[in-house]
Design goal:
alpha/beta; single chain; 8 strands; 10 helices; eight-stranded mixed β-sheet
Length: 267
């Protein structure tokens, strides 16, 4: 039997004078269940989180925001660093009346989740980190570009086109500026303070994030573990959503995070 696939709708909110876009699931779920917030990576948007979001939507309320400067959200002139992107994510949670959430992030989105866990620990129930960056052995733009090129060779054409569309919308200036901020961010210094249950998932064909790096990060987590998806590249949220959901859902069932009160899905 095929697993159910949920539906998402676009909702717009106003935050600090900017019009912000979020994809929100519409499937009926028990209101006491902790919601999921999906955090996109560098230069991309919630668009490439859609495949995994749809597979989780029948089970939890799912929110996939476009952070400021990315996707369909407004693009401020300022390029935001990791803490500023984290603050923007918290404002989005406030706009949707989300006190605490399960966080699922890919690539640089994992760095935002780690920063949130350090500075806003009460907002995080548990976390799933998909291909977390930045590997300490490749903290230069050229090293990251080479690794991205190598992993793209294993990406399906639909994933390449989706990410290329987001890169174009983000623009070269913001991509380079955000990359420099991400390279300067030290996720390994934050993970020892991330005490919630945390699952790191890597695709075996991910050339951006090597196995050695995820093992190092998992060892730093007080409550961490690793799962591997065979033959999958870096963007496993887009390229291997069915396999990823089969890993995430049992992990969440073990944690059974319950919200203390029913939430309204609309701001």
């Amino acid at each position: 039997m095929n697993a159910p696939i949920g539906q998402l709708q676009s909702i717009w909110t106003d935050e600090d004078g900017l019009r912000m876009h979020t994809r929100v699931s519409t499937d009926p779920v028990a209101p006491e269940l902790m919601p999921i917030v999906c955090v996109h990576g560098l230069s991309v948007s919630s668009r490439y989180m859609v495949p995994i979001a749809k597979r989780l939507a029948p089970f939890r309320r799912v929110y996939a925001p476009d952070l400021p400067g990315f996707g369909l959200s407004d693009h401020p002139a300022q390029i935001l660093d990791i803490p500023e992107l984290t603050d923007a994510l918290v404002r989005r949670m406030d706009a949707f009346h989300i006190d605490t959430a399960i966080m699922i992030g890919n690539s640089m989105g994992c760095q935002i989740i780690a920063d949130l866990a350090l500075r806003y620990p009460e907002r995080l129930a548990c976390a799933v980190l998909l291909g977390p960056t930045m590997d300490r052995c490749a903290r230069t733009p050229s090293a990251q570009a080479w690794r991205l090129f190598r992993t793209v060779l294993h990406e399906p054409i639909s994933s390449i086109l989706t990410q290329s569309r987001d890169y174009w919308a983000c623009g070269l200036r913001r991509t380079i500026g955000t990359l420099h901020y991400a390279l300067a961010d030290r996720i390994e210094r934050k993970l020892p303070h991330m005490r919630v249950p945390t699952l790191i998932v890597r695709g075996s064909e991910d050339r951006v994030v090597p196995q050695r790096w995820v093992e190092e990060l998992a060892a730093l987590l007080p409550n961490g573990r690793i799962a591997i998806i065979p033959d999958a590249p870096h963007a496993i949220n887009y390229d291997a959503p069915a396999q990823l959901a089969q890993i995430i859902l049992p992990f969440l069932a073990e944690q059974t995070p319950i919200h203390p009160a029913a939430q309204e899905p609309q701001p």
